[in-house]
Design goal:
alpha+beta; Immunoglobulin-like; 4-stranded mixed β-sheet; 4 helices; 11 strands; 22% helix
């Protein structure tokens, strides 16, 4: 009788444990073509993109507060600057800086620190995700991408973020701190939309901005995050 009761208790506990999924590491680099300290971090992000599989998702967000020096970063956006400030408030940081990398929305450090970055990738690849995202997308016109998603795991206090990225772009910088340099940027976020989650599946569209060229290779990234901006799951697809 005691053995049966013990077996029942063990099964009950296992059933109430939240299911976990394959680890995913999302690296959000805040950078600028107008910042002389940023190219090293940009290059490192590009290396990460090349050397890891789809479970490591590097994203490059270009902020606009370096534009005053003389070079208007074509990828910069005040929206991305505000996004960085939200993280700044979360981390109780006194000031924002570039290059800054945020790992799964949970911690940050200088984006050009290769040893730290590689160490954190290894660490987070050993932590299971609490959500899984299955993403499907296709370009339906010159200006729009349609997508479908299915999310596994608990959705309470979670939201969906969809990011459209250019896989790589080379820019000749004419002014500012990086004047006369040719910069390569990888996985540059050029559009981002947020969706409330009231179901584990759904669909939507995202607009392709004018700065995207016809020969740019694009990728769509789906990110699940909680109310504290911790990333709990993500996936990516090439378009």
């Amino acid at each position: 009788m005691q053995k049966i009761l013990l077996t029942f208790i063990v099964m009950l506990v296992l059933n109430f444990q939240p299911k976990t999924y394959e680890p995913v590491v999302v690296l959000e680099l805040f950078t600028s073509q107008g910042c002389s300290s940023c190219p090293a971090a940009d290059d490192l992000l590009g290396t990460v993109k090349t050397h890891y599989n789809s479970n490591v998702i590097p994203l490059s967000y270009h902020v606009d507060y370096w534009n005053y020096i003389g070079w208007n970063d074509p990828f910069s956006s005040k929206i991305f600057t505000q996004k960085q400030r939200v993280y700044n408030n979360k981390f109780s940081s006194r000031s924002i800086y570039t290059p800054q990398v945020v790992v799964n929305g949970q911690e940050h450090f200088v984006g050009s620190r290769e040893h730290t970055l590689q160490s954190k990738i290894k660490e987070y690849l050993n932590i299971s995700s609490s959500n899984q995202v299955v993403l499907d997308a296709k370009q339906t016109s010159e200006k729009a991408i349609a997508f479908n998603y299915t999310i596994n795991g608990d959705l309470k206090d979670k939201s969906l973020r969809i990011a459209l990225v250019i896989e790589e772009r080379i820019t000749s910088v004419k002014r500012g701190e990086n004047r006369n340099r040719t910069l390569k940027n990888a996985n540059v976020v050029v559009a981002e939309s947020h969706f409330d989650l009231d179901s584990n599946s759904g669909n939507g569209t995202i607009t392709i901005p004018d700065l995207v060229k016809s020969d740019d290779e694009l990728r769509l990234v789906a990110i699940i995050e909680n109310s504290q901006y911790d990333i709990t799951g993500a996936s990516q697809v090439k378009l």
